[in-house]
Amino acid sequence: YQPFLGCREFPAFFELIKDQDNLPEALAQDIDTGWMLYDVFDLASVNDSKAKPSISVFHAQVKQGVLDVPNYYSEAVKKSAGSRYFCESLFWASQPKQAAKT
């Protein structure tokens, strides 16, 4: 099983660092990556071969080179039962606000 960031097209490579005194330096970079896929099934339910998709996403932000992934049960993880309107609302919420014409 290969961990990934959002989708399988973005594999995640990491390793456990046991020596906490010699941690590598984090990237001094902040990036707002927008909505990231958390999962495509409801992790609070038993999922079998007949489980329906239930998209969950979170607003991913890299702060000083670190991406914190919230707990699935956190309010930061937005969940839906596969609704098309849920995806559309996330799209419009992520669009820059335009100034009103005067």
How are the elements arranged and paired?
Blueprint: E1 31-39, E2 56-63, E3 66-67, E4 77-79, H1 84-94
Antiparallel strand pairs: 1-2, 2-3, 2-4
Care to describe what's here?
This protein is of the alpha+beta class and 102 residues long. Helix content is 11%, strand content 22%. Strands 1, 2, 3 and 4 form a 4-stranded antiparallel beta sheet that branches. A hairpin with a 2-residue loop joins β2 and β3. The termini are far apart.
Summarize the structure.
With 102 residues, the chain is of the alpha+beta class. Helix content is 11%, strand content 22%.
- Span of the ends, CA to CA: 55 Å
Any idea what the shape is? Answer: globular
- Determine the number of helices (DSSP H or I, runs of at least 4 residues): 1
Strand content: 15-25%
Main attributes of the structure:
single chain, 102 residues, alpha+beta, 4-stranded antiparallel sheet, 1 helix, 4 strands, 22% strand
